[in-house]
């Protein structure tokens, strides 16, 4: 029986898990849970995760509900090698640096906007929130100087996790190729992964449509800059 993954494909953490599972050729059974509404509580999720957060992975008797922990678990258990999450202390440190950047800086800035639109029904995105996201773009562009991927020449879970969040950010403000050439190149490289559209693109499109619905109008270029 494949692991169960509770979550919505509109959520970047869930998409990071789907990307990683596909990279490892590990099938997962996605159980859709909308944590943005209290109209329906998924009792099965509540039983295994009292915190009621997504993504939550159930693999047999094992349960994990932290995105980064789930990614590490999948590689450690199912990976044929450690290329996606190296065991070498220095290489592992580089991966974890970028994972912590995603969780401590990038993700909160993106979630702040998505939450405001979807849950709080805000119709305008404050300038300071857009600036916080573009500052994250600038930092990522610096990380990627002379690199194909975030930690060097090889794809890791840092890339899979960050591309899920960066792609979510592009729903709010696109990546300028002129301002962030390294980030733009990396983003295109990630989008060219043969499993990207299936695992990240579909959910991203669903989120994009929901954001436009909540805003009550198509997002304009001015709104995104």
Automatic annotation (TrEMBL):
Q: Which CDD domains match?
A: GST_C_Delta_Epsilon
UniProt domain GST N-terminal: residue ranges: 1-82
**Residues in the signal sequence:** none
Tell me one GO molecular function of this protein: glutathione transferase activity
Q: Which SUPFAM superfamilies match?
A: GST C-terminal domain-like (SSF47616), Thioredoxin-like (SSF52833)
Q: Where's the GST C-terminal domain?
A: 88-222
**Pfam families according to UniProt:** GST_C, GST_N
Q: Which GO terms describe its biological process?
A: glutathione metabolic process
Family label: Belongs to the GST superfamily.
What PANTHER family would the database entry show? GLUTATHIONE S TRANSFERASE D10, ISOFORM A-RELATED, GLUTATHIONE S TRANSFERASE E13, ISOFORM A-RELATED
What's the protein here called?
Answer: Glutathione S-transferase
